[in-house]
Design brief:
Largest sheet: 6 strands, parallel
CATH class of one domain: Alpha Beta
CATH superfamily of one domain: AglA-like glucosidase
Shape: globular
Distance between the termini: 49 Å
Structural class: alpha/beta
CATH architecture of one domain: Alpha-Beta Complex
Helix content: 40-55%
Number of strands: 12
Length: 440
């Protein structure tokens, strides 16, 4: 019996789908699933859901719910993390304060001023989790789904290089599937080589049955209905020649070109986006809508007679299966420290590259150099993330300012004096969550 710890297990959709996937693998059908969350109400809901999945599949598995992280982690083989450090009442200011200064953010969970402050609050929590893993299950595979992915993974892997840690995101396989649909190709006939940093990785190769499919993508984008589904990404592809992994709403806030004035906002961000609309504070709006009615959809699912037991497309359980299940090797895109994997990105930044999972091993694959113009774009992002992580680990407020100051969107709309004022306000708002910056 293998043990799996879900830290932040109250994330209902995520945990439910990952458990469903887990139990479809023969090596894990009798798993001990331990759900851990500090929110007892959410924990109770997901406990009910997992019991329902186990019953529906007639699996010989066991599920335990706890608020005790050590209990969850002790002797675990696999650990999954889907935490959120602070509720919307905290992180809303990551979006609202920059907007006051003119930095228009769409999602704000990955980079830029909002992502950096989310990282500053979350890194200490993630390092505490790693400390417990090191003590109670040092051989476990730790898969992180929490954002900001690159900054969290870099911090954890720097401090705990001996642990098996990587970060996973939907965007690589999700975008690959979207492009396959656009060119009317079966997704299982598509292969690709993708590399960069999380949410800003590019398909260096995208093939259908071994043949370059980029000409087919270019042809598909002549259809206005397809083109408008991803205005920002499709515009980036036209000019950069490679397709980026994360959705238009996200990418509009990672670069200097799309959210810097009302004209570009209107043209590229306010119409027809696919995965999320481009308006200011989209995710904040969604959380606020669900703040008082999030229980409704959960209860609706729990009341259903039928349970979908079909395996999904998340990487996580395939990785566990490769490392300590039936050892079927599995290649995926994961977040790792750049020890030469991408030669023209900063050494020891966090990159998203192909990783090979096999018995007791996660091995990043060497990419070499990526095209110079992509490296130029990604280099700025990666260096800002390196400064932000170093700032969090050192308690260095000046490095927080520098990390924000060179963010492309922030630099496109604000002066250095304005950025300093904005960062100071954000530091003050987060003061109780950033004790490392206020030591006497």
């Amino acid at each position: 019996m293998k043990k799996f710890a879900f830290i932040g297990g109250g994330s209902f959709g995520f945990t439910r789908n990952l458990v469903k996937d887990l139990l479809t693998f023969p090596a894990f059908k009798d798993a001990h699933i331990v759900l851990m969350d500090i929110d007892t109400e959410r924990l109770d809901y997901i406990h009910q859901a997992v019991k329902k999945i186990i019953k529906a599949g007639n699996y010989p598995a066991k599920v335990t719910a706890t608020t005790n992280r050590i209990e969850a982690l002790k002797d675990a083989d696999g650990v999954l993390c889907t935490i959120l450090a602070g509720d919307v009442d905290v992180w809303q200011y990551d979006i609202l304060i920059p907007k006051k200064y003119g930095v228009d953010i769409n999602v704000g969970d990955t980079r830029g001023p909002s992502g950096i402050f989310r990282a500053l609050r979350t890194i200490p929590v993630m390092l505490d989790i790693c400390k417990d893993i090191d003590r109670y299950c040092p051989n476990a595979v730790f898969l992180n789904y929490t954002n900001p992915m690159a900054m969290l993974c870099r911090a954890m892997q720097l401090k705990y290089p001996h642990l098996k840690i990587t970060g996973l995101c939907h965007s690589v396989q999700g975008t690959a599937s979207m492009l396959a649909d656009w060119i009317k190709a079966p997704a299982d006939e598509i292969t690709y080589k993708c590399a960069g940093v999380n949410h800003q990785a590019f398909y260096l190769e995208y093939k259908w049955n071994g043949k370059d499919a980029y000409p087919l993508i270019k042809e598909a984008l002549k259809d206005p209905e397809i083109y408008k589904k991803e205005l920002v990404r499709n515009n980036m592809y036209e000019h950069l020649d490679y397709y980026v992994t994360e959705s238009s709403g996200h990418n509009s806030e990672y670069v200097a070109w799309y959210r810097k004035n009302p004209e570009t906002l209107k043209k590229y961000c306010m119409d027809g986006t696919n995965w999320n609309p481009g308006h200011h504070g989209y995710i904040l709006d969604e959380y606020m809508k669900r703040k008082d009615n999030w229980r409704d959809s959960i209860r609706e699912w729990l009341d259903k007679d039928e349970v979908d037991l079909v395996r999904g497309h998340e990487y996580a359980i395939y990785i566990f299966n490769a490392v300590f299940g039936d050892n079927t090797m599995f290649k995926f895109n994961g977040n790792v420290i750049n020890y030469g994997n991408i030669e023209n990105l900063p050494y020891d930044c966090c990159v998203e590259v192909p990783v090979l999972a096999s018995k007791d091993s996660l091995e990043p694959i060497h990419i070499g150099k990526i095209p110079d113009h992509l490296a130029t774009l990604i280099n700025t992002t990666a260096r800002c993330e390196v400064m932000a992580v170093d700032a969090a680990l050192e308690g260095n407020a000046k490095k927080v300012f520098h990390a924000v100051a060179f963010d492309p969107l922030t630099a496109a709309v604000l002066s250095l004096d304005q950025i300093k004022e904005m960062v100071d306000e954000m530091m003050e708002k987060n003061k109780e969550y950033l004790p490392q910056f206020y030591k006497k």
